[in-house]
Amino acid sequence: MAKPTQAHLERIINKKDPVEVRQKTLSQMQYYMGAKLVEVRINPQKVTYRWSIENQDDRQICTLSAFWGESQRKLLSGEEPLTGKELISCAGANASGGLEQAAKLCGFGSNTAAFKTQLSKTAQELEIPLESFKQLLI
Asked: Which of 12, 59, 60, 85 is such that its CA lies 20 to 30 A from the CA of 24?
């Protein structure tokens, strides 16, 4: 049986909660993921982490994913870029890390031009204002 090379942790956050409460939940997710990785003998410092956030009415579904081994290699190589809602969710959640980091975490490797093109196209198809991604598309 093949060993897993990724893990995912999901939490639902109420958008009406104070920012401090929402931030605390996200910090707890990072801590818990690291503790679980140590538990299964994976070094949390050598893992690539990716956030995704899905908005639903008055709540957000936040997912923290950890990749190592073959999954990490595939993610960072640009072999399997995200598309559709997954791309939008990942790009938005990881935008604060900058264009290069968001492109890498969305599966585009170092091809930021392809990332920007696909992000613009997908946002238009899903009727999401491009202003939502202006820090990535400039």
From this structure: 85
Classify 25 as helix, strand or coil. Answer: helix
In the structure, what pLDDT confidence band is assigned to residue 120 with cuts at 50, 70 and 90?
Answer: very high
Strands 59-67 and 48-56 turn out to be antiparallel
> Average pLDDT for residues 16-24, to the nearest whole number?
94
Give the residue numbers spanning the domain of 9.
Answer: 1-76
Q: Considering only CA atoms, which of 75, 87, 95, 79 is closest in space to residue 118?
A: 87
Residues in Cβ contact with 53 at an 8 Å cutoff, skipping those fewer than 6 apart: 60, 61, 62, 63, 89, 92, 93
Same domain, 58 and 83: no
Question: Residue 95 corresponds to which tokens in the numbers above?
Answer: 């935008």
User: What is the number of structural domains in the chain?
Assistant: 2
Residue given tokens 């640009």 in the structure block: 78
Q: Please tell me the pTM assigned to this model.
A: 0.84
> Is residue 19 included in any domain, yes or no?
yes
Taken in order 46, 84, 103, 136, the sign of the CA dihedral is: negative
